[in-house]
Amino acid sequence: MLEITVDEDKCIGCGKCYEICPKAAKIWKIGRVARILDLRYCHVCTLCAMECPTDCIIITRDAPQH
Length: 66
Description:
Order of helices and strands: EHHEEHE
Helix content: 10-25%
Number of strands: 4
Number of helices: 3
Distance between the termini: 10 Å
Radius of gyration: 11 Å
Strand content: 15-25%
């Protein structure tokens, strides 16, 4: 199970995650902070986390199911 979380205290809403994501429109919504819409479309490329200037995106593979 994949889990992507955004630390809202660190996120500045710059949109770099959206800009680099191949499926941005289906996964990301950018406002004051970045929000995840739907991870079913995520390819787990990790580009969003690598591009984030504040390191607020945390990707956890094999995360426990909620």
